[in-house]
Amino acid sequence: MAPVAPSGPPVDLVVVGQGYVGLPLAQAATAKGLKVVGLDRSQTVVDALNAGSSHIDDIADAELDRMLRGGFTATTDASVQARAKAIVICVPTPLGEAGGPDLAAVIGAAHSAGRHLQRGALVVLESTTYPGTTEEVVAPILREESGLVPGEDFRLAFSPERVDPGNPVYGIVNTPKVVGGLTPECTAAARDLYGAFIDTVVEAKGTREAEMAKLLENTYRHVNIALVNEMAVFCRELGVDLWDAIGLAKTKPFGYQAFYPGPGVGGHCIPIDPNYLSYKVRTLGYPFRFVELAQEINNRMPEYVVGRAMAKLNGGGLALSRARVLLLGVTYKPDIADQRESPSTPVGRKLIEAGAELAYHDPHVSSWSVAGQEVERVTDLATAKADLIVLLTNHAEYAPESLPAGVPVLDTRGALRGAEGVEAL
Predict the structure, then answer these.
(1) Is residue 101 very low, low, confident or very high in pLDDT (cuts 50, 70, 90)?
(2) 90 labelled catalytic
(3) For the segment 290-339, what is each residue's pLDDT rounded down to a tens digit?
């Protein structure tokens, strides 16, 4: 099929997907003078962006206003890609119902880009996926839809997103950007694109190495978090303060990096990305036992937290089924509103299933539902009524003096250790 002819002035960059990855990328490129259009399927998101209302933590409305004044626009019209010198795909790659990769959004974006792709353009996939996706899935779709040959008529590359929502130090511009192309010329084209607005660009051998780099980064974190989560369980039985032990270990200036236990893992990377690698390995006939064991350990932490809550209540002569439990923090990390894959959801679900009366406090989340049930929100923490407080996310607001007096606390993040009535995970 011949691509749609461009209609209108050329665009330096079309960013497909205007979420936690795509919008900051568009912001960085716009700030350096590139003509950028954000393409998203949601008319609500597009209308809000064009009206100056940001939906992600890392970009304030004032920053979005600067983007708009710098020429940025958002649209749901896929034909804008026909005017693009470069198209960067930043769409979600969740897990399917069976726990395997769900590439529906990537496949849809590839078909859309291919229908509008012009000779000489660059296409970059940033969505996290298993090694081989760019070459085996995206390239054939682009070729089929456009009639153009990848690596010859247009450039194709993979560049893993490295967005850490809420990070005050590292953002798009000062985080090194890995690029791997289908050919050396493709790599060079991606390097030149990102080099226009990112401080450091690192060239990979090819697309597969770039795809693997992202999975390696997140699998490393996944496995090490599982290690300390399992340690948290048996250190309690041994009478060892794991938090103190971690603090001691991190004084070593080499050969050690600190990871911390918690109620589970959340976010857009750790609970999902290692499964993409495990899936690919299984297609070769091998089990990826490290990843699968880490997943098992991290997935059972919400149940462990509920068990600890039950034991703490029982120690005070109260059954969980007759208790009011207040959860502090329901986002997946501190001081942001992002709830993706937050362990607070399985913790809350298990508490409800056990018969507990549930309430929550979170300054970043105005409403929260678990299993279709709206959970009561507490706004005045100091006067909140509860039989037990469970700290799940250590927002900056949570300090011993901010909590209601006399209520026992189970601290899954080690943020309130040493305070009266606080028991660490």
Answers:
(1) confident
(2) no
(3) 888 998 999 999 999 999 999 999 999 999 999 999 999 999 999 989 88
Q: Quick check: pTM over 0.85?
A: yes
CA dist., res. 319 & res. 322, Å (int): 5
Of 266, 298, 330, which marks where a domain is finished? 298
Residue 292's pLDDT is 87
Task: Classify residue 134 by its DSSP letter.
Answer: I
- Cα–Cα distance between 28 and 194 in angstroms, integer? 10
Please tell me the distance from the alpha carbon of residue 140 to that of residue 163, in angstroms, as a whole number. Answer: 28
**Tokens in use for 360?**
């929550």
The 3-class SS string of 22-77 reads HHHHHHHHHHCCCCEEEECCCHHHHHHHHCCCCCCCCCCHHHHHHHHHCCCEEECC
Question: Are 258 and 227 in contact, with CB atoms under 8 Å apart?
Answer: no
Separation CA 414–CA 314 (nearest Å): 22
Which residue has tokens 């901010």? 402
CATH number of the domain at 232, please: 1.10.1040.10
Q: Quick one: average pLDDT of 272-294?
A: 83
Distance of alpha carbon 102 from alpha carbon 99, whole angstroms: 9
Which domain does 133 fall in, by range? 11-206
CA–CA dist 200, 219 (Å, integer)? 23
Contact 366, 372 (CB under 8 A): no
Q: Active-site residue among 90, 186, 235, 269?
A: 269
Instruction: Say yes or no: 278 and 369 in one domain.
Output: no
H-assigned helices in 333-375:
344-353
Over the Cα atoms of the chain, what is R_g? 24
